[in-house]
Structures are given as C-alpha cells and as structure tokens.
Hints:
The chain is an alpha+beta fold. About 25% of the residues lie in helices and about 30% in strands.
Amino acid sequence: MVTAIVFIKADVARIPEVAEQVAAIDGVSEVYSVTGGLDLIAMVRVAHHDDLASVIPDHVNRVPGVVSTETHIAFRAYSTHDLEAAFSLGQDEGV
C-alpha cells in the first residue's frame, strides 16, 4: 500500500464541490478542508506507486476548481499507540 498526502489549493468559491469530486475519485480515501495556506488535504491510498500517476495528475489535478496540488508520499506509518510509546521513552512509570 502506498499512501500520498495531497495538498490542494482550490478556487475559493468552489471548495465544497472540489472536495466532493476529489473524494469520489478511486484511490482517494479522505478529503479534509483545512485552515492556513491550503484549502484541502486529500489522502490517497493505492496498491502500487505507479497508481499515483493515475489518481493525482490524471484525476485530482483535472477536477474543475483545482488550482494547484503538492504531493507528499509517506514512507512509514506510525500508529497512535507507537507515537505514545515513543514519547514516553525514559519516563518513569510511577511518575
């Protein structure tokens, strides 16, 4: 499984429609509206690295209202449990 995080800038007047259309694309598991310099963040999960080429440039970038995208490919996933364990390293359990 390959996971990519796609930052999306969209036409402000079309953000809800862009989000719905991106969410409907095969391979897109979630779309979030966010604050800051971006409008949307899409999580893309596909079986093979080459599948990203189909999902992102061939589909996400072609949704009307998408102004630009920036894609980040995840190397490794850490569960919440793993992160909690990492932050607690070196702490006494009795404290």
